[in-house]
Amino acid sequence: MEHEQTYGRRPRRRGRKILIGFGVLLLVLVGLVVVADRVAVSVAERTIADEVNQQVAQQGARSAPPEVEVGGFPFLTQVLDGRYERITIKLRDVQGSVQGEAVALPSLNVDARGVRASLDTLRSGQGDVVAETVNGTGTISYQSVADLLNREGLVLSERDGKLAVTAPVDILGQRLTATGTADIVVGEQGRIALKFDNLDVEGLPDVPLARTLVKNFARSISVDVPLPELPFGLTVREVLPRPEGLTVTADARDVPINAAG
Fold first, then answer.
1. Distances 219 to 33, 96, 166, 194 between C-alpha atoms, Å
2. How many domains are there within the chain?
3. Transmembrane as a keyword (predicted)?
């Protein structure tokens, strides 16, 4: 009787071993698929980084190597569908020039959504890789803006959410210090308009001529500051002063993100 009971348990043990074996095999296969997916992502990110490098170089600028991240999982299904959820590009230490003056952007982050790229385009390298929307956020150092204003001793900074200025000014033979804030207006063709309306000057002589000279100085530093050409056809929408510099927000639609186009 005991022998029969022992014999009757063996099929169940064998069945459990088979199930465990299938489970292990399934986990291995899933792991291989995930590894293949991540390898494909890595290749795509390197390819996009190369394209971005070409765009930056074509615009006469330079930067640290782009950092690219392709979002969405699994990646391979996006490849087959020819549509990618999100591609994030980070550029650091961007160096451009405007009117012969160097302009530094410590950082430029680009977020591309709804990217379309057919499988044939990826295979051949021919054709367009197009993003439905591209949003960019960059930072321009205050020193770069001050250099463009070309005023000795002028210092720009952020104060209480406003663009603040401190600058030496000569008034009736006296070397005084002017302080104040500016309104920032986004102009056409990527220009930033700085409007300094009211400046305070400690020790200013209480005479009409002195006040007129201060107003003239304020007008002289109220200028349009052009931006270097941004990649991906980005158009500036907003500029805000931050402790680290002027933060520029830009966007574009239906943008080719491969240099060849």
1. 64, 27, 15, 10
2. 1
3. yes
